[in-house]
Amino acid sequence: MLRPDSIDGETEEYGESLTVGAFLDVLNESFVGMRLSLRGEISSVEDRRNVVYFSLKDTDEEGMLSCLIFRNDFLLHGVDLEEGQEVIVEGTPNVWKPRGRLSFRVSVIRLAGLGALKRAYDQLFLKLEREGVFLSERKRPLPPSPKRVALITSREGAALGDFTANLERYGFSITLFDAHVEGKRAIGDILSGIEFFNRHPEAWDVLVIIRGGGSLESLEAFNNERVVRAVASSHIPTLAGIGHEKDVSLAALAADVMVSTPTATAKALSASEREVREKFTLLVRSICDDFQRDIFESAERLRDISDAVRRSNEKIMDPIRRIDRVGIRLSSMFSSWCERAKVEQLHFSRLISRGADTSRMHKRLESLASRIEANNPKRLLGRGYGLFRKGDRVIRSVSEVAVGDAFEIVLSDGCIGASAQEVRYNQDRV
Q1: Domains of the chain from N-terminus onward
Q2: Which of 27, 105, 122, 415 has its CA at a distance of 20 to 30 angstroms from the CA of residue 239?
Q3: pTM
Q4: Sign of dihedral through CA atoms 128, 130, 136, 138?
């Protein structure tokens, strides 16, 4: 290596000299592991296919640095660059050997200052609004009873506890994708979570994204264009509970359903479950009330028939007693049916708690209603059945009647006097 010394105008040789390329290699090696954060003003932006070039300068000093950021990093952690913007960049220095040019390889760009963040928020909002990303027409309703929940949030955040505490008693199945929800890793984590769950969208009923409140700066990941578009294009219905102070995050606006807090998110999911329970209870109660009313009306009608028959002929007391016994039996059957309905209701409630399919509950309920309706006394009385009596005996066989015999027919609304004109046995009688 040569070191100049001012001795009689000559230089003294110490070791071997480096080539320019070797010197630049040594210089770049010294930069390895050196990660810096710089603040400055954007100028001279040049957007090429794979790389974005720009200059970073001081606003009040004579300092300028050439910078570059690769396309993938720019799309993930960059902002729309404009000359005059004040930004903060993170990256490492590097010397390009062919030109001996020092540059700064940037991996993260973010706007400096709340004012810049608000302007970027407003610009992106207008852009996406014009594209129809926030239109209510494109949003999907949540399933009526979403049991399988895909959840994206931080395992360490308080939002997770608030969310699960309100769903534990309803039997929800929750699969967590642990993601940073703040800082430079948040954007990549959230995108990875959305992509992970959307690989098999049929496995989930709803995709939930939650985090607690924060400033516009702390919610920066949820105002990233790639995150917003990923939420809007999810194949799984999305529910966002992203806390905020002033401005609603753009990711929440793009979701199918938006609520203000993680707790409100859990309540939005459980609301449909509570609605199913309430509707089921009301349906069972309505059925029982209807059958009780029908039974009472039928019992009143039977008592009227009994009174009429008793007044017309004291000799038919036995069939009257039989009619009374039928009424008692029907009342007992009704009590049994109501008890069975209560058991079914309890069974159905248990099925709901275990995440049973709602359609199966309705089918079982319809089956119960059909069985009860088939044994409705009104239907039995209206089918044309009657009581045949000869003297003081009930006729149970044609062998008990001869041609010319007089007998009475007791129907639901009165009695008929008749006589036998012909006695005929069934052909299959042995």
Answers
A1: 2-112 (2.40.50.140), 120-260 (3.40.50), 272-383 (no CATH)
A2: 122
A3: 0.49
A4: negative
